[in-house]
Amino acid sequence: MKRPVQLNMFSSTSLNVVAGIKEAMNVSAKMCGLSRDEILERMNELARRFGVRLVKGNGDLGRDTFEKWLNPKALEYVPTVQALPIFCAVVGDNGGIQALVRPLGAMVIDSDDVKLLEWAREYHNARKSRKRMRQIEAEL
Q: Cβ distance 108 to 97 under 8 Å?
């Protein structure tokens, strides 16, 4: 089990992630090649398909609220935890989630990076095993 992150009280890393998430979402929206209306339409479609409520009530996410979510200066309008993965899936970028976990020293990685990490762990385990085998062989 991993130990909790120990933050230094003089650390410059802030756990207030709202502005960073909104900035990352704004950049992702600009870079994805979809219009804001297309992103909004796809988000509402995915939310309906997966039974996710993006906003309070039973309605769809509206354009005004969506624009406020993407505006780093509108700090009182924050996307919900349910909305963030929907947004990331639509734009094809995990920047918003990365901004959420960055202050904790974590990273969001894709499936290729997962495979590389698994390979690196196995490689290091194999090296340790070979070293131990040489030690035992020398004792024989």
A: yes
